[in-house]
């Protein structure tokens, strides 16, 4: 569940989850139920029972270290490097529980990121050890919400994120109704609220400066469209160094409207304000594909 980068229309046909399902072993420690629907068989993680606590529905923890290639000249981790750790955690966690992109790709499905909000109280310095906690809090018909907190070795929380994901059919590039997914593995949902406000919508951007970027090989991900962190890097590159290196608390919201693909020419518009900026990215002269905001406190 690393990153897609667009929100697409739902397929018109309904999705039934009332059919029979089977259970089989996945790797050595997880079980999957395969829901037989009219879009094929899709593996769904069913948590293994814990003798003491019952069904496991807890936050998952993953450890990281700020490596030299992830810092800027202030020796603090960059926003894109921390964002990449967050999305990498989503992918690792989904894979380990049996509903990662590898499992979904077998039936020509994939996860794509629709919206995300990230907040950092500070950006840790080089060689800092930190832990990313992640959990799924809900499934809707279109979107699943996955949450994150980032905590340093002393136990101090310095970051948090809320992401919303859609599942698509790779043949039609259309979204799959997630209602049956939530019903089928409701036990995987953690009873904990999102750690911050959900992603904000950016409805209008009036650029004060613009740049262009041609999408090349290194920009695209496994879903064959522009990688989320590449979008963020394009936008941050338009901002003054004074903001980027201030070390002040920062929040970033990003909303994907459509995908951008290899070979397209992107127009990146920035509306710079005193302590914040709004962004809009469009491909080949078309409508907005991505909107985002960054605000320093």
Task: Give a short synopsis of this structure.
By secondary structure, this protein is mainly beta. The chain contains 5 helices and 16 strands.
How would you describe this protein?
This protein is mainly beta. It is 14% helix and 39% strand. The protein has 5 helices and 16 strands. It has helices at residues 79-96, 101-105, 179-184, 228-236, 241-244; strands at residues 21-26, 30-37, 40-46, 49-50, 54-55, 60-65, 109-120, 129-139, 144-152, 157-169, 174-175, 209-214, 250-256, 265-272, 276-283, 288-296. The strands form 3 sheets. Strands 6, 7, 8, 9, 10, 11, 12, 13, 14, 15 and 16 form an 11-stranded antiparallel beta sheet that branches. Strand 8 and strand 9 (144-152) form a beta hairpin. Helix 1 packs antiparallel against helix 4 (228-236). Mean pLDDT is 83; it is low at 12-54.
